[in-house]
Amino acid sequence: MVHTKRLIAFLLIVITSIVIMVWTSPGIISNVKLGLDLKGGFEILYTAVPVDENQEMDQELLREAARSLQMRADAKGISEPEIYPEGEDRIRVRLAGVENQDEVRQIMKKPAELTFRSNNGCEDPSEFCKIELNGSDFVEGAADVVFKENTNEPLVSIQVKDKDKFKEVTQRLLNNGYRTQENILAIYLDNEIISLPFVGFVSTDGTATITGQETFEEAEELAGIINLGALPVVLTEKYTQSVGASLGELSLQQTITAGIIGFVLILIFMLGFYRVPGIIACVTLTVYTWMLLLVFYWMNATLTLPGIAAFVLGIGMAVDANIITYERIREEIRSGKSILSSLRAGSRNSLRTIMDANITTILAGLVLYYIGTGSIQGFALTLILSILVSIITNVFLSRLLLHLLIRANIAKKPAYYGVKEAEISEL
Amino acid sequence: MNFREIDFVKNRKKFFSLSIAITVLGLIALLIFNLNYGVDFTSGTTLDVLIDENSTTKEKAEQIYQETGIEPSTITVGGDNNNRVNARFEKVLSEDERIGIISAFQNEFGAEQVSYEENTVDAEIAKELGLKAIYAVAIASIGIIIYVSIRFEWRFALTAVVALLHDAFIVISLFSIFQLEVNLPFVAAVLTIIGYSINDTIVIFDRIRENLQKFKIKNFDDLANMVNTSIKQTLTRSINTALTVVFAAFCLFIFGSESIKLFSLAMLIGLISGAYSSIFIASQLWLILKSKSLNKKKTDVINS
Q: Is B88 helix (H, G, I), strand (E, B) or coil?
């Protein structure tokens, strides 16, 4: 007797999954973040050395240098730049989707140029064209955050090496009239305005404070910028991977084609070999692919070229869970058990095997992730995620579907499981 | 199915000889040719220039490089219709040199047609990457030994690791014999092979462990029979899983992007070797180790 409720539940799950997948896939696919090897861009590992030989490299300096690189990338309009300090004196920069790579690479490497400018003698008074002071005029590392007495307002204190020069500048700007355009001593980093303070008094001892910072963080950032400008680091490229945009696109297209062909071959094989459970393998493998993409999208993880390779291999490995279970079930059928008790025994016996086998692979993946860099990490991440996802889809979902289908009583013949009658032994 | 008639245990010496022969051959190759290390481990620059819809010859590419005055140590022309020129330099290319080379290609084929991939590795980083690769394989192997020892027993762990090192070594040997380039992705491939090899072995071992309790084992023949049965019971799974992953790796090798061709090839060799070693190396070695403990027990009985 066919058990209609279970059959309906089975069909409902399959159809709902298909509808959800068809509906959401275009959005997910277009939003998965692609690595620089797939859409062009570069990854560079720099070592930073202070310009001043007497200066020691420390974590703070390294973080400031990284922050300054970040600002440059932002100024160039590069989306989602990944820039972070690494170890004692290294900075890793990862920029994807860069069109004019040579230009950007040059800008990134150039030491930050800090200038203090006024508009004195400029044709257009709204521009600050006259450089009054530059980074090397400041005492190294002297910019700091202090608090104004009484109000506790954060201030940035600065110190200039040449007292007389600073006195001349502050005197001249103050004489132009307090709080006029001519009074401003604008702070620039490269060609970007950082702050526009007015000059309120004449400095005779080479020190001054900059007011107008709303928060402590803001003041700290400004102090950092001034220190960085006064203390530029020299960056040398130690490791570079740079991929042209159209080359990346070609890689993406070729590898996805390869993946689809592999996927279809696996589906055909599973259908041919396992029949009814094969259908379920096809459904769960499709859900697996969709879910892995979804996880990438949720985690905002980057899909790299080796990542796609891991994705495709992952399909082959995910189906292993189906194969182990189905083989076990077939074995039980051959031993003469009924389909239902074969399913029960097969599911129970195969779960432990699948878990042990997968955990060892995850171990290898974790090692890869912690030791590798860049695209290798992308590969390791995909490998680990693909195993986790496959446990959900190709173990649990696959079981649920198989149970429903078998208990719906519509697939009773051993032939539906790829087992010949002659192979079944009598109990 | 006639493969069910095969006596795997009886023929184990043949399989051992085959693996030993390949290993010795690999060792000789490694000693004579070493590995063809890419820039990731030796430092220098590789420049992979794609000229889109054009095609070129090796002679022409060499000529272009000659004109720029910067000559690479190796040039290979590949791609769908010879539209990819891969050049390797032993020194690190400077910015001006790179720009010079790219503009030479642009002059020849048109600015819009040229797209390139550059990989530059400094000597210091190259050394670091090499060390990291060795650590990775060592740490992964130790982690697997510990896990399998806890879940199974030390004999399974030891033989599983022998099998996975065997697989890794076969891939390394073949890359040495054919002098294929070894870069960072190759290490990733080897580590995945390790992961797969252990995965494959565990499934057979799991069955052996299960049968160990079901079968009455008194002597070597009983044990051998049990191992044989276990292999046969899991054989279809071993073959089918190997087939599906091989389908995947093969498609990546044939249709995938040029930059992961060697990676896929390493994977393909390793996957096949992984499936082979689980049946013919790991299980057989376990049998030998286990039979030793069997003999000991027997003598214990006699002595008491």
A: strand
Q: CB-CB: which of B135, B195, B267 is closest to A361? A: B195
Kindly provide the residue ranges of all beta strands, DSSP E only, lying in chain B, ordered along the sequence. Answer: 36-37, 44-50, 74-78, 84-89, 115-121, 181-182
Residue A324 belongs to domain with CATH number: 1.20.1640.10
CB contact under 8 A, A320 and B192: no
Q: Please, are residues A410 and A2 in contact by the beta-carbon 8 Å criterion?
A: yes
| Mean of the per-residue pLDDT values of chain A | 84
B100 with B228, same domain: the answer is: no
- C-alpha to C-alpha distances, A376 to A47, A60, B186, B268, B284, nearest whole angstrom: 21, 29, 10, 18, 34
| Cβ proximity of A222 and A213 under 8 Å | yes
Residue of B nearest to A368 (CA): B136
User: How much is the average pLDDT of B228-249?
Assistant: 92
| DSSP element (H, E) containing A154 | strand A154-159
Same domain for A104 and A221?
no
Judged against a pLDDT cut of 90, whether residue A268 lies above it is answered with yes
Q: Report the side by side order of strands in the sheet with B84-89.
A: A82-86, A90-96, A41-50, A233-243, B115-121, B44-50, B84-89, B74-78
Instruction: Determine contact: A335 vs chain B, CB below 8 A.
Output: no
Q: What is the DSSP letter of A413?
A: S
d(CA B282, CA A285): 30
Chain A residues with beta carbon closer than 8 angstroms to that of B143 = 363-364, 367
Using 50, 70 and 90 to split pLDDT, how confident is the model at A370? confident
Same domain for A48 and A31: no
B152: helix, strand or coil: coil
Q: Are strands A144-147 and A154-159 parallel, antiparallel or unpaired?
A: antiparallel
ipTM of predicted complex: 0.86
CB B83 within 8 Å of CB B52:
yes
**Domain span holding position A399:** 4-37+244-423
pLDDT attached to residue A269: 94
pTM for this predicted structure: 0.79
Residue B82 corresponds to which tokens in the numbers above? 């010879």
Closest among A234, A227, A194, A230 to A111, alpha carbons compared: A234
A265 touches chain B (CB under 8 A): yes
Cα dihedral B212, B215, B219, B224 sign: negative
Residues of B in contact with A238 (CB under 8 A): 121-122, 124-125
Distance CA B273, CA A11 (A): 41
